[in-house]
Design a protein that fits this description.
The structure is a homodimer. Chain A is an all-alpha fold and about 190 residues long. Chain A is built from 8 helices and no strands. The first copy, chain A, has a domain at about 60-190: Tetracycline Repressor, domain 2. Chain A has helices at about 10-20, 30-35, 50-75, 80-95, 95-105, 110-130, 135-160, 170-185. In chain A, helix 3 runs antiparallel to helix 4 (about 80-95) and helix 7 (about 135-160) packs antiparallel against helix 8. The N and C termini of chain A lie far apart (about 65 Å). The interface between A and B is large, with 44 and 45 residues. The first copy, chain A, binds a DNA duplex (30 and 30 nucleotides) through loops.
Chain lengths: ~190, ~190
DNA sequence: CAATGTAGGCTAATGTAATTAGCGTAATGG
DNA sequence: CCATTACGCTAATTACATTAGCCTACATTG
């Protein structure tokens, strides 16, 4: 039997492609093995389990998202940075739905590598918010609100949750515009101790 | 064999309980049958398939959510209605995570019953927005932004996505406050044709 | 170059879950 | 009371994840 030249990286990359094509929830080892031209059990020489593979894919996808966001926001500030990052976020989700879904998986508490990848995403978010002069609890609240808004939008959009006949791009643009305005007034909101 | 007194409704209700307890994604016919004290194949006398059951559960849960939101918002208007509905939304998700996840499933295009349930939710949202004088594309954009923000927040929160040591309730309250302010200025945003 | 050890493929077997086929009994309506 | 239907069962099939254990390509080393 000729060697197939697999590795953990190759398997994860193939898993990403299949997750993008078939959906994160329908990712199966059978499909991955098939598309790599090997039998299913062979994968276990490179992964520990399906869940382990999902975690590896989550880490890889989260890093990819962080780099994408950072690349979009670099050299920009304020509303400019916000719009660039938000558009990059949605584009990533639309272009790579499986990988995007993987980024939503929360890191296990003791998983330093995964945490670091998730932190890298949050660093970009906080960098964008710093352009609005936000820090401390203000920034945490704003970061949560921003991530929630963007994630909620793309999750609903990708899930077919927008039934009305209006282009999602328009609504998204409007959302970001409104968020920008909200950030300008953010620090003046009641700061409950 | 004594009859177990099953029905589609009973099976769906049990599925809801199990989805809440184990998670929407880990809902299995085996668990449902077990908890009802019957063998797995017996369920097929009342459901068409696992996916059919998930759809039935989605309809039931979506109706429940619509009623919950309507009950919370009735008799209120403006910021009051917004806060009441938003809090009811998050409470529902936290109290019934499985049912909440079911409500996110988009109706199939030809599924009138499911569509009607989803419309009932949107009617409450539009009713809240009408208190801000919004209609037409303005209202559609605002409705999408609102649903995205709320869904994104509870999805991330329930998924353990908030790592920072700050109470999610605070961040949520802040989000709603900011959204209220955004709605006041909403119609003045650029209305791109 | 030959011996050898390991890495990386394989087949076979197990367990869980969804689904279908077909059997037998409880409930119900003439 | 009998016939029909409703409803639960067992048995079998399929798909998938997982483990055990085999067998060979290939790199290392004498």
């Amino acid at each position: 039997m000729a060697r197939a030249g697999l590795s953990r990286e190759v398997v994860v990359a193939q898993a990403a492609a299949i997750a993008d094509a078939m959906g994160w929830d329908r990712l199966t080892l059978a499909a991955i093995a098939d598309s790599l031209g090997v039998k299913l059990p062979s994968l276990y020489k490179h992964i520990t389990s399906l869940d382990g593979l999902r975690r590896d894919l989550a880490v890889a996808a989260t890093r990819e998202l962080a780099e994408t966001l950072a690349a979009a926001a670099v050299g920009r500030a304020g509303p400019d940075a916000l719009a660039a990052a938000a558009n990059a976020y949605r584009s990533f989700a639309v272009a790579h739905p499986g990988r995007y879904a993987a980024t939503v998986r929360a890191p296990a508490p003791e998983d330093a590598e995964h945490r670091e990848a998730a932190d890298a995403v949050m660093r970009v978010v906080f960098a964008v918010l710093s352009g609005y002069g936000l820090a401390g609890d203000d920034a945490v609240d704003a970061a949560r609100a921003l991530r929630a808004s963007l994630h909620g939008f793309v999750a609903l959009e990708c899930g077919g949750g927008f039934a009305m006949p209006r282009a999602p791009e328009r609504s998204y643009h409007r959302l970001i515009e409104a968020f920008d305005q909200a950030l300008l007034r953010w620090p003046s909101s009641s700061e409950g101790g």
